[in-house]
Amino acid sequence: MGIARQMEAFRTGFNQVFDVTSLQIFSPNELDHLICGHRELWEAETLVDHIKFDGGYTAKSPVIVNLLEIMAEFSPEQQHAFCQFVTGAPWLPPGGLAALSPKLTIVRKHPSNVTSTPTRTRATESTDEDLPSVMTCANYLKLPLYSTKEVMYKKLLYAINEGQGSFDLS
């Protein structure tokens, strides 16, 4: 039996809103595209056109260049997890990053281990210890100034995977 009862209840409810038989004109791939949107191929050169950089970062900042390269290297599953982490939504809207509103914004995350005195501020450790964080309601990624692309990749994947469904890393 499995989920037969649940599927039939879903079909009945869906049919009350939209005649399910009219969906037969679409192929499974077309339905997937209509429901989930187009899964765009991410390339560093095109990603830069759809992302806003602020808080000390520009499109030419080395940490941003590394991030865009990492994003372009993501598998489809990693792209999905990244979207979920940054936006709180499992998929980008139809039109991809270009249609995201508000626009994905990446800002510099200052080290959490900063010691401040009235006359100076200094970091006590490397920013390589910090994780990226997000504000999903604003599509806002706060990215530390990592020393290498490899460190960024590890920290980003850790935050994406461990932060799913949690506000602990926000």
State the helix count.
Answer: 6
Oligomer class: single chain
Largest beta sheet, briefly? 4 strands, mixed
What's the CATH H-level homologous superfamily of the largest domain?
Hect, E3 ligase catalytic domain
By CATH, the topology of the largest domain is Hect, E3 ligase catalytic fold
Shape verdict: elongated
CATH architecture of the largest domain: 2-Layer Sandwich
The largest beta-sheet arranges its strands as 1-2-6-5
The average pLDDT is 84
Structural class: alpha/beta
Order of helices and strands: HHHEHHEEEEEH
Task: Give the CATH class of the largest domain.
Answer: Alpha Beta
- Give unreliable regions as ranges: 120-125
Percentage of β-strand residues: 5-15%
* DSSP, total strands: 6
Task: Give the count of structural domains.
Answer: 2
Q: For the terminal residues, how far apart are their CA atoms?
A: 41 Å
Give the fraction of residues assigned to helices.
25-40%
Radius of gyration equals 20 Å
